[in-house]
Each structure stands twice: as structure tokens, then as C-alpha cells.
Amino acid sequence: METQVGLLAVGNEVVEGQITNSNGAWLAQQLQQLGFENTYHLSTRDDPQEIQHALDFLKKSCQLILVSGGLGPTRDDLTRQVLAQWAGCQLELNTEQWKLIESKLKARGVTLREGHRQQAFLPEGALALPNDNGVAPGFYLNLKGFPTLASLPGPPSELKKMFDQYLQPLLSKELAPKRHFSLKTWVCLGAPESEISHITESLVGDQFQLGFRLHKPFVEVKVWVPLNPTSTQIKILDQISDKLAPWIVGDSIPKIRERFHQYLKKYDSIFIIDHLSDGLFFDKLREEQHSDHIRYQCFEHKSYRDFSHSEVVSILAHLVTPGHNDSLFISLFPRSENSAWLAFNQQIEAVEIPRNISIQSKLGRLYVIEKCFLKV
Question: CATH for 181-251, among 3.20.20.140, 3.40.190.10, 3.30.70.2860, 3.20.20.450?
Fold first, then answer.
């Protein structure tokens, strides 16, 4: 059985919705890959009683609790004090960490305050986790009768570096997590979630834990596979791949995006000519890791009209200069009620939208945009 983990984010700004707890999602992914079982994601305000209530709840079922946030120099940064009190130990000054904090702040020309000094106080018996990207150290505490505790800073750049460099090796050594399952995914495009789920569920039965994620216009199928699957289970996985084959476009949405943006980096200049999506393509580009050498032109039409192949050829002939391999033109045009033209430089192809989805609908335009991401 996997070690069960509870994640607790501390901060008024998290509870009140001012920021999204992206730390929790990132930590959960890292922990699952290591072989831990994520059971709870909680968040509390900067309130000692609320933090302790959350810890009491997690203690009932979790062997590891990871707390993020509340390690700064201000009066409302109470995580270290509350964790020490909850675990029944005193705070003590870690002189080595205080020297590091002093050195970092002096190098920045910051006047030292008493609040800065509080960041060097750690629960008695805790192991300091250095903060290479910030000031406040985290800590790791393993006391008899309590779950293993780890406290990490709130800023994502600090938290991720601290986890990767210091906490992850420590957890692997001290808790020795063992993976019992691996996650297999199929990313499908062109069929509704109801159909994809019907096909998959009819094959899986009770052999696997199964999940779905709708990321329009993609449907992601997730199956948790034992590390040593039976011959029957292997056969089922092959059947899933065969049945979903007409719609499978990859095994990871982030990989599709990353591949597309790596492709764009081959060119000095990127020009996007969008007669189709009224800016939706640009919004999708900004959602992901985008390049700073993209030039975007969006054309809006009072009367949405279709383009013939000859019209597209003529437009691109005026835009794309043959022989200039350092520039890329990506063009999108409506073709019919259920299709579009997609062009990379002067290579034009027709994109047929499945199930008579209108090209003027958001889903129809998203389908064409995703086909663009897949083209490379």
C-alpha cells in the first residue's frame, strides 16, 4: 500500500481565490510519480486554529503531510509556529540558516528586521531545507506519533527547487515509496466524451481504475495499470488502443503543445494569419509556453464567409516568399460549414470537422486550432 499524503496550502489569498493553488497540483504529480498516494488537498487561512484543525484531520489517514506557504517574515506567516505547537516541540534558532539569510539580504541591500530573523527559527529536531531561490528555509520533521511533516515556501519557484533538490531525495530515502501502478493515457480528438467513455468502459470492466478528463476539444483517457499486469490486462490495453485508434492523437496534451512550440523555435519569425477564429488561436497560444517572435494578425468579418482553394493560394502567394526558410506563415481560413483550410507557408490542407460541428462554433474552431498543433 502506498504512503498516503495530505497537502495543505496556507494563506488567505488561496482560500479567498486571489491566487490558484498551482503548488498543490504540481506537488501531487511529483508525489504520484514517486509512488505516494495523494488523498487530500486542503487550504486554510493564516489562522492558527484553522491550520491545526486541518492538521488534525490529515493526521487521521495520512502518513505524510506537506504544508506550503506561511514561512515569510511578516506577522501573518505563522506556519512554523503552528506546526511546532501542533507537534509538541519548541522553536529554536538555526544559526546556520540565520547566517545564510543575513548574507542573502545584505547582498540585496535589504535592512535586516526582526521579521527576517523569525525565518531562521525551526521546530526542535527539524532538518532545514535550503531555499536556493529565496530566503526562508523549509524544514522536514519526523516525530514519533505524528505523520512525517514537510514545510515548503509558497512561491512556486522556491517550492519547486526546494522539493526537487532537497525534499524529494529525502522522501525517497526515508519513506522508500514503492509504485504499484503506472498511469497510461490516450489523448483523443474528434469524438465526444460520452462515446470515448462508452467504448473504454465496455472493455475495461473491473480490471482497471479508469478516469477521463475533458480538455476541449480533447478527451483524455486514463488507466491505472499494475506494474506487473496480467495477460488479460495487457490484452485489454491493446483492445483499447485498437478501438480508440481513429481518434488517438497522442499520449499527453503537454507533449503535443511542447512539440509545437519547439517546432516554432526553428524559425526566426512566425506570422499567423487568422481569418477563422477571431483571436481564439492567439488565446490558445498564450495559454501555453509561447514564443516572443510570433506576429499575429486576426481578421474579423461582419459577414462570415468561406474561402475557395484558389483564393487561399492567391493570398498566400502574396505573403509567402519562396526560398525564405527562416520565416513561417501559419494561416487559417473557413472552407465550408464544417471544414477549414489550414496552411503552413504554401502547403494547404483541408480540415474536416467531425459530426457536422459548425466551423462558426467555438468547438469547431478549437478543433481546427488543435489540428494545427498536431500538424508538426
Answer: 3.30.70.2860
